[in-house]
Amino acid sequence: MGNQSPEPIVQPDSDRLKSLRIPLRIDGQIIGLIIFLAVIMIVMSFASEHFLTYINLLNILQQAAFVMILAFGMTFVLSTGGIDLSVGSIVGISGGMTAWLLYHDVNMVMAVIGGMIVGTAVGIVNGLVITKLGISPFIATLAMMIIARGVLYVWTGAIPIREYMSSSFTFLGQGRILNIQFPVIVAALLLLILLFVYRRMRFGRHVLALGSSEEAVRISGIKVDRLRIKVYALSGLIAAIAGILLASRLTTVHPEMGKNYELEAIAAAIIGGTSLAGGKGSLVGTALGAIILFMIKNAMNLLNVHPYWETIVVGVIILVAVTVNIWGGSARIRLGSRKALKEVKQS
């Protein structure tokens, strides 16, 4: 009797199915963003007869797609508790590399790969500087933002790169499938892929864990420096994709291309519910945040509001989103503390 090994516990089939099932619970913040979008659309439908037209809505998605893609990478970075201010410059230098290669008659596929390699390399350098030199993500990526932009200016001589377009490359930024712009389709595909990585793969779980408690991640045996470098490399790669699509869309790569895009990417991620403190993020929320951002810009344009006011409005939106984020986090902490205290008293 004493030598008998315990029988293995067999998980019932129903329990296995439950463990594999994707939860259908929708985050309350996502619902709030959807309601906010609906309110904007309802109000603007009365304010302008052109707002709810099929062409205008597609135009909003087209404009939002580039920042949306950029913000996906930013969501990963912010989830670790870091920040990447260099993504706007990566957009410019990666798009510039692709355009330069195409101008010199390099095969389009190789030119696109070249641009992606440049973006990834810049991201890796960011990660190495942060992890090996111990420089804060803000300072490290701010420096890289300036360096990469300066390299683009020196490289181009402050002269825009032109005459690099081909029919196949034109499709990347201007083509349509089922009358939907290709950049919008790329953004949707990236959302699905990255959502799976973020929520279902070990890498995504480690990213969220790193933002919640770096010490706990180290104790668990995860190589924190390597993980952080991977996150910044991913951010650089995603920024490069946005830059290549934008180079195709604009048909000209100006040294200023992508400037201030990092601010809009951060804004989209924060509006979508990603915490600046790390440990919390939502790619779906980020996508909605980008759409909200450009829907408001589009609404102001239709109402003939001066473009300078857009900057003020975006700043106010960021301030409100961060405030709501902080208050929401504080409320959850207080609720958790009360629940824990109640359980202690009951015990």
Concise account of the structure shown:
By secondary structure, the protein is mainly α.
Structural features, described:
- This protein has 347 residues and is mainly α.
- The chain has a single domain (27-346), classed as ABC transporter involved in vitamin B12 uptake, BtuC.
- The protein has 14 helices and two strands.
- The chain has helices spanning 13-20, 28-47, 54-79, 87-103, 108-132, 137-156, 167-174, 182-200, 202-212, 214-219, 224-250, 261-271, 283-302, 308-346, and strands at residues 176-177, 180-181.
- A two-stranded antiparallel ribbon has the order 1-2.
- A hairpin with a 2-residue loop joins strand 1 (176-177) and strand 2 (180-181).
- It is globular and about 60 Å long.
- The chain starts with 12 loop residues before the first helix and ends with a helix.
- 39% of the residues are buried.
- Mean pLDDT is 85; it is low at 1-25 and 331-337.
- This is Ribose ABC transporter permease.
- InterPro entries: ABC_transp_permease.
- Keywords: Cell membrane, Membrane, Transmembrane, Transmembrane helix.
- It is a multi-pass membrane protein.
